[in-house]
């Protein structure tokens, strides 16, 4: 029987289990601290993801509004938009524009080709 105890204590897996049971209270506390830090880290990461999403949406709206306002501003600054005079290409054109229906037939008869 004494010989069996020696074999039992000499078994390396038993020694590992014995050491693990001795370290268990400290290991358990350490695991709890690690889990708490991981949870805090996950909460912080999720908060920053939310902040980045809010900023992304905000800058999307700012960009969209600036593009629309800029486009409208460029279109309304066009001088030909409010100009009611006849265009230079129609005024001094020597080529009849009948096939595109830009001129009436009476205008074409008045134009002479030399």
UniProtKB/TrEMBL annotation:
Keywords linked to the UniProt accession: Membrane, Transmembrane, Transmembrane helix
Membrane-spanning residues: 58-76
Region annotation (Disordered) ranges: 1-25
Family annotation (Pfam families): Neur_chan_memb
Ranges for domain Neurotransmitter-gated ion-channel transmembrane: 27-74
Any one GO cellular component localisation term in the record: membrane
Biological process, per Gene Ontology: monoatomic ion transport
Descriptive protein name: CSON010467 protein
Lineage, top ranks: Eukaryota, Metazoa, Ecdysozoa, Arthropoda, Hexapoda
Gene: CSON010467
């Amino acid at each position: 029987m004494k010989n069996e105890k020696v074999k039992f204590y000499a078994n390396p897996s038993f020694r590992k289990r014995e050491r693990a049971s001795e370290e268990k209270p400290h290991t358990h506390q350490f695991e709890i601290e690690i889990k708490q830090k991981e949870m805090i880290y996950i909460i912080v990461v999720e908060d920053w993801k939310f902040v980045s999403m809010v900023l992304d949406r905000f800058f999307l709206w700012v960009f969209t509004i600036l593009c629309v306002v800029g486009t409208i501003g460029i279109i309304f600054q066009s001088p030909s938009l409010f100009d009611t005079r006849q265009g230079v290409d129609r005024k001094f054109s020597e080529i009849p524009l009948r096939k595109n229906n830009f001129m009436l037939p009476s205008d074409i008869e008045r134009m002479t080709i030399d």
